[in-house]
Amino acid sequence: MVCYFLRCCSSIFYIRKICPLLILLLFGLDDAMISHAAELRLTWRDNSNNESGFRIERSTDGSSFSLIDTVDPNRTSYIDQGLTDSVRYWYRVRAFNSAGHSGYTNADSAIASTSSTGGSSGSPPPSGGSSDAGSSGGGGSSSGSNSPPTITQVSDQTVSQGSQSLSFGFTIWDPDSISSSLEVTASSSNQQAVASTSLSVSGVSSNRKVEFDLEPLFFGTFSISLTVSDGEEETESSFTLTVEEAESRPVITEHPVALSVLSGDSASFSISAFSNPAASYQWLFNGSPLTGETSPDLFLGNVSSANAGDYRVRVFNSEGTVFSSIGSLEVVQPASIDLAPIGQNALINESVTLFVEASGSNLVYQWYAGESGDKSNPISGASFSILNTPPLTEDASFWVEVSSQDSAGNPFAAISSESVQIIVSNDRSSTLERLSNVSLRAQMEEGNSGLVAGFVISGTGSKRVLLRALGPSLSQQGVSNPVEDISMNLFRLSGTSQFSLIGSNEDWWRAVNASEIVSVSNLMGAYTLGPESGDAAMLLHLPVGVYGAQLAGSSMGGGTALVEIFDVDAVSGEIGSASLSNISMRANVGSDENVIIAGFVVTGTEMKRVLVRAVGTELINQGVQDALRNPLLQVFKGSQIVAANDDWNDFGGVVSSVTEIVGATSLAPGSKSSALVLWLTPGIYGALASSSDGMSGIVLIEVYEAL
Q1: Phi, psi of 524, rounded to the nearest 5 degrees
Q2: Residue 277: cis peptide before it, omega within 30 degrees of 0
Q3: Backbone conformation region of residue 340, classed left if phi is above 0, alpha if psi is from -120 to 50, else beta
């Protein structure tokens, strides 16, 4: 390696607020491994304390200079790389800041060469070396020993608190190695001052930079150490960084976090902030200040749904205001079982539908076989409020666990139902279990004559039936919008699709058997009709067949109508071999009270299996274009719900099987119609069809006796 150096004169110059003394020294650097390229090293002395940096200019003729680089303040050396062999270069340097430039240093020159002869080797002087620095470079070592690398000293620095992305330049050199092969590392004496992951050294040649992010809240003094290594020898240098505490607006170091708590429990939020001067706090709930909540901590006891919402903090001092991020509070309502499953009887190899009604937040269900509390036999996939049991071959017990969840799916307190027993029998007589008194209630549009209540008399022989179409009398039963005048026509299916009119009535009291209608109504326990009301009624002996009672009424804006079908034989004791096996009604369903209700009575002493359906889009195939897309079906006993269904596919297997048994029209696999197969004890029931999504349309509600 051959190095060239030139001793230079010092130059003192002054500009506004800059007063540096610069001495420019040049040293030629080269390496035998580099062909047709060399380096020249410049060093100068800096006596100023307020420069923004230095501008370095170069010339190949000593008169025409051009800017080649700008370096950071406090730099005292620079290495110019990639020079052409055997060419002389001139250099000059001047300082600058916002006020302007200083004068130039003296111009100095040296010849760049990659030749291995003709020169003497030497080491560059230390940063800020004296005027005899050039003469201190002696002859090259002939012993072949390795020389340690050198590193310029970065001057001590002072910055303000909150400074970030700091960068300080320095140069490295080694007489035995090319600069790009030298490894430089940096470390901090205080890990709390510098984010360790941000401390790095950039650059791949002689000119390097140490860069790091200063922690925004730190103030005080620490040091940065720089180590350069050539693989055998290493040199270390360090400088001190003083961070002066600054007055500033608060800095939040810990924000409130989101919470989910059970209703009735407590909740706590907190915040941490650095502030100089000291900070004040104000908690906000959904954007509004909470009276008296001016500390870094917020405690809420016995929370309820009224406390659910967004909490954040306004943090402020004389320097400014900041807001924390939002910590939301979710109040989870505990699970509560409002209607427990009910025990039932079942035929062997038949399924049973169990239902639980519960309230709470984001309810989760899990059904189990066995006694309540025994979780050893969970039923796979039974995670809904309704359980359709597998076919049963023996008596069985079932129970359900209901728990609440927060919005993230975290479970809270769970509650268990009592176990219910299903009694399985191979012999069930349905002789005495019949559908007797039935009723169908729906809304009629003004002038609409398409409201039809259907029913089926099955078996053999005939049956005595009382039919009533109520409108005006409903006002005495608390109905606010009854049909003001109603008429009824009764049809019987005489062919595959042909109905024949077999009777009609508009004013019940005009019927030839009006007195008998009164006595039978009393026998059935039916509501007494007004002496000259606009209701309609018929008392008939009807043979086995399919019937439809078509209603027509008049009322401003439409109103509510009720059809009642009474099995007089079932109540009078003349059971016979004919039975009322199916009822249905087709009407418009919408929101609020615009629903269809089918009421029916199961008589006898044993349970009766029934199929209840709310049919929607399948009606399109029957010419009903405005069919309800998504009906909801609920079955009540008195005021208590027995079962509910939104989509019949939830119980597709058993519904399809019983639908085929009773001869009903099949439901489409992808439809949103609803259906339930139930074993019902004797009593009074109501099946309600409504809209699941608030839309309106025509729906058909059906109740079948399923033997």
Answers
A1: -80, -10
A2: yes
A3: beta
CA 281 to chain centroid: 31
Given a contact cutoff of 8 angstroms between Cβ atoms, the answer to whether 134 and 127 are in contact is no
Asked whether the beta carbons of 288 and 330 are under 8 A apart, the reply is no
Q: Which residues of 224-250 are buried (b: 16+ CB within 10 A; e: fewer)?
A: bebbbbbeeebbebebebebeeeebbb
Beta carbons within 10 angstroms of residue 305's beta carbon: 12
498-534 CB burial, b ≥16 within 10 A, e <16: ebeeebebbbbbebeebeebbebbeebebeebeeebb
- What is the rounded CA–CA span in Å between residue 419 and residue 374? 10
Query: Which of 392, 399, 390, 393 minimizes the C-alpha distance to 343?
Result: 399
Burial 633-658 (b: 16+ CB within 10 A, else e): bbbbbeeebbbbbbbbbebeebbbeb
> What does the alpha-carbon distance between residue 12 and residue 23 come to, in Å, rounded to a whole number?
9
Contacts of 451 (CB under 8 A, 6+ apart): 442, 444, 550, 551, 552, 561, 585, 586, 587
Distance between CA 536 and CA 384 in Å, rounded?
44
Q: Which residue has the tokens 């209901």?
A: 402
Query: Residue 502's Cα: distance from chain center in Å?
Result: 61
Exposed, middle or buried: residue 60 (CB in 10 Å: 0-12, 13-18, 19+)?
middle
- What are the E-state strand segments in 364-484? 364-369, 386-388, 396-405, 411-416, 420-425, 434-444, 451-470
E strand segments, 132-173: 150-151, 157-160, 166-173
Report CA 363 to chain centroid distance, whole Å. 17
**What's the token pair of residue 693?**
């999504």
Dmax over Cα atoms in the chain, in whole Å? 143
Cβ neighbour number for residue 319 with a 10 Å cutoff: 14
Residues linked to residue 108 through DSSP beta bridges, in sequence order: 91
Q: In this predicted model, what pLDDT tens digit does every residue of 331-357 receive, in sequence order?
A: 999 999 877 887 776 778 777 777 787
Secondary structure (DSSP) of 92-112: EEEEEETTEE------EEEEE
pLDDT of 137 strictly over 80: no
Write the pLDDT tens digit of every residue in 387-422.
878 888 899 999 999 999 998 889 888 999 999 888
Q: What is the pLDDT of residue 500?
A: 79
- Burial profile 172-191: b = 16 or more Cβ within 10 angstroms, e = fewer: bbbbbbbbeebebebebeee
pTM above 0.85, yes or no: no
Q: Give CA–CA dist 584/614, Å, rounded.
A: 9
9, pLDDT greater than 60: no
Locate 246 and state its tokens. 């600054």
- What Cα–Cα distance (Å) separates residue 621 from each residue in 492, 627, 666, 668? 22, 10, 12, 11
Q: Quick one: the chain helix, strand, coil %, rounded to 5?
A: 10, 50, 40
Quote the mean pLDDT of the chain. Answer: 80
At a CB cut-off of 8 Å and minimum separation 6, what does 497 contact? Answer: none
